[in-house]
Design brief:
Layout: E1 9-13, H1 16-25, E2 48-52, H2 60-69, E3 75-79, H3 80-85, E4 106-108, H4 115-131, H5 140-148
Parallel strand pairs: 1-2, 2-3, 3-4
The protein binds iron/sulfur cluster.
């Protein structure tokens, strides 16, 4: 319960969906009501990676490095169509979904998603955290999941 209500998000915002996240943090929607107002711009002090915006293939290795620098347990939200699937940018230079390089826990649809949808995504993560077994991160299934991404 403590972990669920004290998430430290790392906003990896590259374009327009990041603006919606700013609205989500501001007074009207106030992510702080969910105990997640302490943003971390250091991967080592974050447990929720929020990817918001178009991720170019050249940026993929950077995103992956940020993910790898986060300590376990950690969770990932793909916010918006671009982070989830590449969105409208079906081009040679855009990553067609961040789940091609890192595991994703929750996808938030929309272009851009409304702040309510982003809050809903955070609440879904809270549900995952509350129901997650303390042993999950050491389980063979989780190790296999990371191995499928080439992450040790
Ligand atoms: S999903 Fe839409 S609003 Fe979000 S970054 Fe992509 S183009 Fe912009």
């Amino acid at each position: 319960m403590a972990r669920k209500n004290s998430i430290w998000p790392l906003p990896f915002a590259t374009s327009c969906c990041g603006i919606e996240f700013m609205a989500t943090m501001a007074s009207t929607y106030d992510l702080g009501r969910f105990g997640a107002e302490r943003l971390s711009f250091s991967p080592r002090q974050a447990d929720l990676l929020m990817v918001m915006g178009t991720i170019a293939k050249k940026m993929g290795p950077v995103l992956r490095q940020v993910y790898e620098q986060m300590a376990e347990p950690k969770w990932v939200i793909a916010v918006g169509a671009c982070a989830s699937t590449g969105g409208i940018f079906d081009t040679y230079s855009v990553l067609q979904g961040i789940d091609r390089i890192i595991p994703v826990d929750v996808y938030v649809p929309g272009c851009p998603p409304r702040p309510e949808q982003i809050l809903d995504g955070v609440m879904k993560i809270q549900d995952l955290i509350q129901n997650e077994s303390l042993r999950r991160r050491n389980s063979p299934e989780y190790q296999d999941l990371l191995a499928s991404y080439g992450i040790e």
